[in-house]
Amino acid sequence: MTADLSTTAASLVAQAPERAAPGVGTPAGSLLAADVPSVVQSVDWLAIAPPTLTALAALIVLVADLFLPAHRKRLLGYATLTALAAALAFLIPLRSGDRSTFCVTTGAQACSYTADHFTVVIQALVLGGAFLTVLLSLDDTRKLPAGEYWFLLLASASGAALLPASRDLATLVVALEVASLPAFALVGIKRGDRRSSEAALKFFLSSVVATAVMLLGVSFVYATTGTLHLTEIAARLDDVTPVLDTLAKTGVALTLVGFAFKTAAAPFHFWVPDTYVGAPLPIAAYLSVVGKAVGFSGLILVTVIAFPSYADVWGPALAVLAALTMTVGNIAALRQNATRARSAVRLLAWSSVAQAGYLLVPIAAAAYSSDEQIGSTVAYALMYAVVNLGAFAVAALVARTHPGNRLSDYRGLYATRPLAALALGFFLLCLAGLPPGIIGLFAKVTVFSAAVDAGLGWLAVVMAVNVVIALYYYLQWTAILFRGPDGAPEKAGPDTASPAPAAARRFRAPTPLTTAIVLTSTAGILLSGVPQTVLRFAAVSLF
Transmembrane residues, as ranges (predicted)? Predict the structure, then answer.
């Protein structure tokens, strides 16, 4: 045995110079490097800076919470605010939209992370939404575990920022869950609150089921194509063998289910009202904007980039979902009782469901025309994010004197807080698509145009009918703001507090909350004055 090993070793040594290239005596390491392609991926740190910085800030806040005394916990909120502002600043050098990283080094040119124009715009939306959520939360975390709250919010924001840049299904699913799992805990973070715990449980269970269905769809797609990169999936789905065609269609349909849940599209919307009512109000605002951005980003990526070959499957499905979602949301919003506890938040929840229906229209239209229709969804999402966060900010202000947050509590708001009433009226008119909310009107027009240009005339008619329905409850709420205060004493119930005296109603609003209202109002006015700032996305390709 020893002799055989010696002979083998001697022969290998003798053959080494013959295999060496280009000259005799080339080291074995160089030989292997020449023959085997490198699998080491270069990392573009600037491209991944926004989600990376947010994730690192989450860890720092969690550790810092262990060492800060209770009276200094507020500093964690300002640290969170600073981290999100820094992450937003890192988007400025990425505005050219031409950076990719974590790319395959052999064969096809496919990357797992791409910072294109679509990525930068959506990252600005989610990080800006998280920034405003922090402003709404700074004075509401005294009764909450501050360290855990800010950690969970930053962790969720990092996942939300990662998702629009994901270009393979594995990264997409991981980003979706990183954005979702902390959100479950945030919804149920009010310890001892039965409503909060129930909302978190409903949110968690329904999300887990949707994720399981989506993962089954992803596995079907992978079994059909043998790859997870979105661009490679699109190329291989072009020539799927007939025996695998049914498997591929099933995988496409099931994959869409998970993202339909995140967008609160009917019939996957049932978790929305109870979750928004049970969650802390800033978290409800966060879910209504950032949560939707996550769902719509993933839906756009898988449909437009990965599954264009099966547009005949997802196009009609999304068109029907859009019509159903906007109709269910608006009809449910009409049924809200003004004197019911938390009816204002419930109306905003059902309104967000209806708005999700409008956002689905251009994505469905992309199946019948071109990818440029996606820009209409992005433009509408930017408008919706600004005005909906503003509406929640005013709701948070009213909730400080009326914890029941009923629609009737807003009666006569103009008499006690005229600027807040004007701001809320403006936000509601933007959502309704009426002047002076010009940006809301133009955003709806771009969505109409997307449907008509794609030949979906029936969907445009359904949307027109729903816009008229929505006018009723938006204008009704707006009118309440400017009516005279109700002199009759309010009935106190288990979910409401006794009416506050007039002096208490004129309390000084917290500075962070006031700042959030001012920022959203200013942004809404500027966008109404210069609507092409966001509407230009409806006329260009973002990929």
Answer: 43-68, 75-92, 118-137, 149-166, 172-189, 201-222, 252-272, 284-307, 313-335, 347-368, 380-399, 419-443, 455-475
Q: What whole-number distance in Å separates Cα of residue 57 and Cα of residue 456? A: 45
Paired with 168 in beta bridges are: 229
Q: How far apart are CA 262 and CA 253, in angstroms?
A: 15
Q: What are phi and psi of 229, to 5 degrees?
A: -70, 135
Q: Which residues of 348-357 are buried (b: 16+ CB within 10 A; e: fewer)?
A: bbbbbbbbbb
- Residue 224 tokens read as 């059909």
Helix (H, G, I), strand (E, B) or coil at 288: helix
Distance CA 481, CA 409 (A): 9
Helix then strand then coil, % of the chain, to nearest 5 = 70, 0, 25
Contacts of 161 (CB under 8 A, 6+ apart): 50, 51, 54, 87, 123, 126, 127
CB neighbourhood size of 36 (10 A): 9
Task: Kindly state the tokens that stand for 70.
Answer: 């209770």
Does the pTM of the predicted model rise above 0.85? Answer: yes
Which tokens is 253 given?
Answer: 């349909």
pLDDT at res. 108: 64
84: nearest Cα among 176, 154, 175: 154
* Sign of CA pseudo-dihedral 459, 465, 470, 475: positive
The length of the chain in residues reads 543
Angle, nearest 10°, between helix axes 292-300 and 169-187?
170
Predicted local confidence at residue 137, as pLDDT: 93
Q: What is the DSSP letter of 188?
A: T
- pLDDT, one tens digit per residue, over 301-350 is 999 999 999 999 899 999 999 999 999 999 999 999 888 888 999 999 99
Low-confidence ranges of the chain (pLDDT < 70): 1-41, 107-108, 486-507
Token couple for 514: 């006031």
CA distance 44 to 174: 20
Say which DSSP state 240 is in.
Answer: -
CB within 8 Å of 404: residues ≥ 6 apart:
341, 342, 493, 495, 496, 497
Do residues 339 and 495 lie in contact, with contact meaning Cβ atoms separated by under 8 Å? no
Q: Cβ distance 456 to 319 under 8 Å?
A: yes
How far is it, in rounded angstroms, from Cα 476 to Cα 410?
11
